[in-house]
């Protein structure tokens, strides 16, 4: 019994083994070629930038290197050699014949298609601005510049804007008043400096009158009141004539000939000097008379009227309206210096001013003595003697 059981077990195991070999032979016909795997690419994920407080100043950018050529993929592994099929000992009728269509030889592995090199994306380099260095504070603007408003930019196509009143005022003054040349005052004597003062006075008055005409033409009532107040103040300011025409002319003039124009001017001056009027109008007439006499001396220094004009100017300056005694004495002095034989009592008048107004008794006695010695008028000589006794006691 045991022998029979062992034989049956052995026969069953042999049958199972033979079937497994046959099934393996059939499945070998459907073997697929080996799968070709592509080489793995490096990860291209971008790193997460650090937090703002953890950033470090970037390193200087290095020179860009050309991308390295991709490495060729490794050849696929060779197929394992087939093991020789083990022939079963079963009878031949049980082995199924193999179909010639299914037993095609495996195709030779062809070369993998050329793949383009992977595109290497250059990572942008983040550049951070260098930390700002502390700059020194700017100096404050001057007060005049700090108050200036920025210039207005004209919009193209917009209608022109009305000029500001201050711009109109400036333009009016510049247009109607001749610009004064800048005078070099260094090294100028008294005469040059006094003439410069007189010239600027006249230019100032001319500018005020031009500005008043401008405002009146446009009906600017408020500004007309302003300019009138300034003109009134200008008229009230004393305008000292630091040099008279007699002082500028000097003692060297001589009345040598008769000039009709000079005679006409002298007569006009006498007309204004003796014109009957009450103050303050009388002083205005005296000013016109002074201008006439000055013109005679300035324009016609050879006229036989220059000593007469100087004497009349002395009378005006020494009178009640001007009381300019120093200039009056000077005009009297020029009268007898230009014409020692003048008929006018210039020496006696000058002595009286030194005695009564300038309180210079020594100079007064000197001039009284000259009157006694040089003047032919007996009445004036007697008055001079009396004044000498009063001043000296002799």
Describe the fold and architecture:
The chain has 394 residues and is mainly alpha-helical. Among the domains are: 166-176 and 189-236, no CATH class; 254-325, no CATH class; 345-394, no CATH class. Helices cover 48% and strands 0% of the residues. It has 13 helices and no strands. Helix 8 packs antiparallel against helix 9 (306-317). The longest helix has 29 residues, at 190-218.
The dominant shape is rod-shaped
Give, in order, the helices and strands. Answer: HHHHHHHHHHHHH
Rg is 65 Å
Strand content: under 5%
Which segments are poorly predicted (pLDDT under 50) over 5 or more consecutive residues?
90-101
Count of strand segments:
0
How far the N terminus sits from the C terminus, by CA atoms, comes to: 206 Å
- Count of helix runs: 13
Helix content: 40-55%
Mean pLDDT: 76
Assign the structural class, choosing from mainly alpha, mainly beta, alpha/beta, alpha+beta, or little secondary structure: mainly alpha
State the major sheet.
Answer: none
């Amino acid at each position: 019994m045991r022998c029979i059981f062992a034989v049956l077990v052995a026969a069953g195991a042999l049958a199972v083994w033979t079937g497994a070999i046959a099934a393996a032979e059939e499945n070998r016909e459907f073997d697929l070629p080996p799968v070709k795997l592509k080489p793995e690419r490096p990860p291209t994920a971008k790193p997460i930038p650090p937090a703002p407080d953890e950033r470090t100043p970037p390193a200087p950018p290095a020179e860009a290197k050309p991308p390295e050529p991709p490495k060729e993929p490794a050849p696929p592994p060779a197929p394992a050699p087939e093991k020789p099929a083990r022939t079963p000992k079963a009878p031949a009728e049980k082995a199924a014949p193999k179909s010639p269509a299914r037993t095609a030889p495996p195709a030779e592995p062809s070369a993998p298609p050329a793949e383009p090199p992977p595109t290497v994306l250059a990572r942008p380099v983040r550049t951070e601005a260098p930390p700002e260095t502390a700059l020194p504070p700017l100096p404050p603007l001057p007060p005049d510049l700090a108050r200036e408003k920025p210039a207005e930019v004209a919009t193209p196509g917009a209608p022109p804007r009305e000029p500001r009143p201050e711009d109109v005022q400036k333009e009016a003054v510049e247009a109607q008043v001749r610009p004064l040349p800048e005078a070099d005052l260094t090294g100028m004597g008294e005469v040059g400096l006094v003439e410069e003062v007189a010239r600027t006075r006249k230019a100032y008055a001319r500018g005020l009158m031009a500005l008043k005409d401008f405002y009146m033409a446009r009906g600017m009532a408020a500004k007309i009141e302003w300019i009138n107040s300034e003109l009134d103040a200008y008229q009230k300011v004393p305008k000292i004539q630091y040099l008279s025409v007699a002082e500028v002319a000097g003692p060297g003039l001589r009345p040598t000939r008769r000039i009709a124009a000079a005679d006409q001017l002298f007569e006009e001056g006498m007309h204004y000097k003796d014109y009957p009027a009450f103050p303050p109008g009388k002083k205005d007439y005296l000013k016109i008379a002074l201008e006439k006499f000055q013109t005679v001396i300035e324009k016609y220094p050879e006229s036989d009227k220059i000593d007469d004009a100087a004497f009349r100017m002395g009378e005006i300056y020494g009178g009640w309206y001007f009381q300019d005694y120093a200039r009056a004495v000077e005009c009297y002095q020029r009268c007898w210096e230009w014409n020692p034989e003048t008929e006018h009592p210039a020496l006696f008048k000058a002595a009286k001013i030194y005695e009564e107004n300038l309180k210079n008794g020594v100079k007064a006695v000197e001039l009284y003595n000259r009157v006694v010695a040089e003047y032919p008028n007996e009445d004036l000589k007697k008055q001079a003697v009396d004044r000498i006794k009063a001043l000296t006691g002799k």
